[in-house]
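hey
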């Protein structure tokens, strides 16, 4: 099996996430077959395959059973020894030269995949075959309408592409100098025009046409179908009701004897269409399938998902959801991504990382060490402190070790046993406590204020929702429900909606704005850039067509006269919704009755703008939309000081943007641009500085002479800038060379390649936002982040780029914000200083201390909050470790140790046991013992037990701080034990019992600790 996978070019990894990967762990073999929707898990017993199941690559949990599956080749080009040998000899023959100067030749010779190697596919094989080589001679070939024209265009594009490559290969100097590039002639890769026509000539040919072709084709057959009614003309008229027009058309069809069918994309959209059409006098029945449509009585609504309707004269007329509402995009069900899975990787621990021990301060993690503890093997984390002192932490106590995380790092490691760390932590604790109390006061003040209760109009709201051209994702519906529930509470809401680019945050805002506007309140939508204001304004105007809502725009792209009219309308209450940039924050802007403030991409607003936003927030509802929240906002959400809705579920038809971080290479960039242009797309080329624009534009002209290039930057006149963007959006230009002015929110589905010049000069959030400008359709998008070909970049820039290349999955914006908090620190929550005090104690410990302080402040200080700065040490004289033969990868073992140490309750413990068996096979003894120890930790914490050592003759118990919550209760319990328990002068409890084996010892310690926890619990009550 492993030889088969290697031959099929599958890559062996520790954990399977992507197609073309496999992992072997004992008797468990995970494979992600190429072309499969989900990876599969094979469970072997010896050489016998017991079962096959699919599994979720995010959670790694098994799901459905399978009877079988297919292993397809992971790469088009094989990389086995024979194929590599054929490639090497074929290369030398084809190009009459060795390939020692060619990175392609070098990679293939070493058995490594190389980007674009499929362009040399004939060199890997003895001969190339087409689909027609496998079909019988009497095969019938059916061609769609205009297939001939499409074939001609394709052949022309292949010839142009080869010509461009050949020209690039022959270029003696300039941008291409010194870079070998040797393309194969297209005749070796593709059928020629003559070969294609010959194939069609031998086959039985059938051609379909949407036109009446009886005159041209004597043998033509009329299949009877005709295109149905499409309501684009009605949608284009703002004052017309498309649903009224559809209802009238259905009545006419029914009166003419046609059976009328309405086809929807989903159950939800069918229900909405049935509701709005019933309000207009057309009652539809819900048909389960097409057969029921044909046999049932009366007009019906069915869920088929057809793109366009049709008419069979005298029989049936089908109207589709797309006919009525315009182009629809189906988002099929997608497995929900849990927020905790999104941010889990931020806390990964690696050798050499700076870490913070809650009691001993900042040290350096140097890996796992297996020590002999009480005669049994025990995995421990090794931390190194000042003076090369070492501290070993049992793996079950890993939760008291956190990553330092903050950028820069401290000057020195702490000294074991030194007083400096405790003093530093105490100071920080007091600062955080003061800050938490101040934040609670701010939050409490908002709760005490009144805000308008904004309730929607069900009928109009359903009609508004029906215009949304997608099926809502589960997360989206939850976010919408959250904000609508907030709006009826009667107190000001302050909700953060965090969702990746293109995941539907704007729709949440639209529905909230609709509810507020129809409740008679004004809505302000504040965005950071003029271009985003223009785009949102267009979106709002289109969606609110036909409703009694007046919308205005305030930005540099609007004339002074229009701005004056908008301000007057806002003050009088004539304007219901206004979309604007920071122009909306001017002191002369007044609202008659503002009810909802929507802030998009808050991270782009400066200090002064945020102060003005605070003044607008008084007694109004606030909705903040962002893909990558600023660390301070994210932290407020994570600590529960701000409501948050996370949209983490991507649409199924959305593909992750492929991200490449590379030194500037003109060959690769030219290939990227030519490929995008040949598939009919457009390109962004973004520069960090305005001074770079002309040089980059000239370079693009040099690399792709036929490309139509436009330049845009923020210093242009507003009218000129809008003209450039409108022309680019209309397809008048192929490449837009710009500064990061395109960063915020622009939605152009045809732009699917972005090149970022000197990516090291951009921030993490900027890079993420820029990459989010592409990949907004079903087409695979590409992002190329280029670095200087020579010269070093800063360590921080390198870390940012590593994160960008790692986070190329959909829905990573929340993860990225967590990484950003990890790199930069969260800052002071009440001020603007991003670095904050985090350098004192590191990011994770700071976050934990803040959560404790907030919990304490919420309880009013009258309730004890669990102190997380300690972890009970439990020694049962048993082996405690995850063996290497069970989980070979160190980082994965550390991740499991961290997860296990944080388990709370039997349900979580059982879930993890199931997962371990599922992923890695039967649980070894050392892991079972680890789980037993972790089960005891909760009881030890409740009992205040800092340390317990157990052996064959009993146990020694040390209480935290040598103090017990109820000394009298403890003495009474000791008396009841009749000599089995006694308290030594050093305050340690000695418990004597006969525990000869592991099982009796674990059971005995569990009983002992539960007794002590019960006594302590009574005292606390």
């Amino acid at each position: 099996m492993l030889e088969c996978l290697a031959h099929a070019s599958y890559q062996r990894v520790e954990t399977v996430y992507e197609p073309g990967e496999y992992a072997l762990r004992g008797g468990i073999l995970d494979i992600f077959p190429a072309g499969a929707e989900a990876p599969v898990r094979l469970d072997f017993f010896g050489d016998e395959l017991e079962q096959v199941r699919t599994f979720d690559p995010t959670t790694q949990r098994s799901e459905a059973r399978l009877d079988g599956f297919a292993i397809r080749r992971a790469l088009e080009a094989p990389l086995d020894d024979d194929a590599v040998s054929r490639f090497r000899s074929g290369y030398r023959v084809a190009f009459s030269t060795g390939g020692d100067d060619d990175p392609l030749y070098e990679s293939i010779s070493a058995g490594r995949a190389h980007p674009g190697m499929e362009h040399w596919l004939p060199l890997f094989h003895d001969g190339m075959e087409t689909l027609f080589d496998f079909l019988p001679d009497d095969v019938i070939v059916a061609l769609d309408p205009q297939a001939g024209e499409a074939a001609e265009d394709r052949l022309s594009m292949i010839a142009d592409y080869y010509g461009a490559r050949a020209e690039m290969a022959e270029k003696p100097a300039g941008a291409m100098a010194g870079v070998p590039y040797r393309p194969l002639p297209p005749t070796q890769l593709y059928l020629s025009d003559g070969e294609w026509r010959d194939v069609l000539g031998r086959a039985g040919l059938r051609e379909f046409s949407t036109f009446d072709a009886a005159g041209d084709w004597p043998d033509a057959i009329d299949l009877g179908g005709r295109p149905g009614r499409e309501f684009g003309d009605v949608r284009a008229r703002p004052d017309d009701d498309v649903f009224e027009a559809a209802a009238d058309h259905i009545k006419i069809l029914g009166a003419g004897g046609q059976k009328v069918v309405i086809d929807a994309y989903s159950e939800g959209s069918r229900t909405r269409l049935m509701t709005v059409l019933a309000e207009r006098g057309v009652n539809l029945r819900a048909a389960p399938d097409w057969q029921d449509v044909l046999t049932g009585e009366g007009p019906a609504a069915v869920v088929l998902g057809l793109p366009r309707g049709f008419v069979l004269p005298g029989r049936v007329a089908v109207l589709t959801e797309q006919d009525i509402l315009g182009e629809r995009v189906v988002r099929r069900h997608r497995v929900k991504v849990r927020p905790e899975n999104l941010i889990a990787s931020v806390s990964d621990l690696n050798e050499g990382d700076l870490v913070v021990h809650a009691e001993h301060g900042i040290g350096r993690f140097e890996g796992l060490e297996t020590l002999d503890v009480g005669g049994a093997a025990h995995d421990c984390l090794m931390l190194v402190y000042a003076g090369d002192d070492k501290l070993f932490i049992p793996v079950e106590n890993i939760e008291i070790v956190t990553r330092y995380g903050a950028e820069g790092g401290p000057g020195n490691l702490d000294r074991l046993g030194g007083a400096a760390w405790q003093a530093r932590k105490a100071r920080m604790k007091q600062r955080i406590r003061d800050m938490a109390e101040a934040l609670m006061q701010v939050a409490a003040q908002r709760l005490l204020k009144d805000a308008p209760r904004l309730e929607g109009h069900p009928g109009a709201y359903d009609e508004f929702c029906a215009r949304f051209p997608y099926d809502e994702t589960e997360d989206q519906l939850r976010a919408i429900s959250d904000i609508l529930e907030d709006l009826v509470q009667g107190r000001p809401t302050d909700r953060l909606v965090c969702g990746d680019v293109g995941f539907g945050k704007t729709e949440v805002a639209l529905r909230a704005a609709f509810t507020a506007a129809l409740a008679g309140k004004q809505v302000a939508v504040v965005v950071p850039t003029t271009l985003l204001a223009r785009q949102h304004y267009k979106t709002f105007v289109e969606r609110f067509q036909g409703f009694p809502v007046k919308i205005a725009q305030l930005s540099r792209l609007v004339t002074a006269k229009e701005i004056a009219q908008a301000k007057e309308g806002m003050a009088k209450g004539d304007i219901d919704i206004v979309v604007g940039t920071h122009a909306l924050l001017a002191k002369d802007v007044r609202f008659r009755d503002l009810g909802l403030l929507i802030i998009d991409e808050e991270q782009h607003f400066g200090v002064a703008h945020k102060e003005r936003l605070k003044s607008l927030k008084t007694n109004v509802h606030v909705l903040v939309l962002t893909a990558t929240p600023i660390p301070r906002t994210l932290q407020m959400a994570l600590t529960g000081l701000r409501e948050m809705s996370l949209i983490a579920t991507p649409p199924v038809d959305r593909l992750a943007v492929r991200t490449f971080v590379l030194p500037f290479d003109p060959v690769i960039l030219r290939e990227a641009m030519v490929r995008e242009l040949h598939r009919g797309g457009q390109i962004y080329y973004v520069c960090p500085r305005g001074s770079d624009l002309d040089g980059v534009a000239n370079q693009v002209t040099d690399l792709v002479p036929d490309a139509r290039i436009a330049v845009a930057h923020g210093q242009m006149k507003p009218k000129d800038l809008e003209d450039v963007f409108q022309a680019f959006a209309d397809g008048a230009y192929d490449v837009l060379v710009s500064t990061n002015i395109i960063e915020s929110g622009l939605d152009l589905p045809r732009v699917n390649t972005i090149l970022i010049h000197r990516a090291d000069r951009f921030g993490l959030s900027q890079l993420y936002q820029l990459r989010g400008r592409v990949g907004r359709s079903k087409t695979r998008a590409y992002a190329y982040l280029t670095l200087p070909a020579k010269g070093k970049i800063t360590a921080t820039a390198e870390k940012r780029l590593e994160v960008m290349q790692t986070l190329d999955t959909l829905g990573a914006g929340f993860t990225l914000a967590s990484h950003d908090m990890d790199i930069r620190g969260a800052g002071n929550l009440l001020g603007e200083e991003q670095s904050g005090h985090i350098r004192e104690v590191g990011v994770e410990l700071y976050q934990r201390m803040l959560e404790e302080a907030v919990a304490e402040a919420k309880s009013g200080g009258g309730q004890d909050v669990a102190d997380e700065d300690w972890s009970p040490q439990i020694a049962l004289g048993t082996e405690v470790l995850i063996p290497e033969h069970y989980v070979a990868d160190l980082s994965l073992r550390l991740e499991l140790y961290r997860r296990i140490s944080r388990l709370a309750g039997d349900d979580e413990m059982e879930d993890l046991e199931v997962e371990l068996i599922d992923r890695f096979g039967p649980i070894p003894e050392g892991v079972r013992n680890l789980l037993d120890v972790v089960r005891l930790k909760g009881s030890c914490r409740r009992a205040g037990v800092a340390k317990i050592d157990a052996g064959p003759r009993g146990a020694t118990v040390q209480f935290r701080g040598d103090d017990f919550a109820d000394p009298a209760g403890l003495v009474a319990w000791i008396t009841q034990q009749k000599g089995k328990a006694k308290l030594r002068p050093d305050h340690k409890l000695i418990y004597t019992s006969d525990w000869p084996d592991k099982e009796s010892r674990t059971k005995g310690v569990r009983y002992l600790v539960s007794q002590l926890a019960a006594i302590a619990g009574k005292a606390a009550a």
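The chain has a mean pLDDT of 82. The two ends are 61 Å apart (CA to CA).
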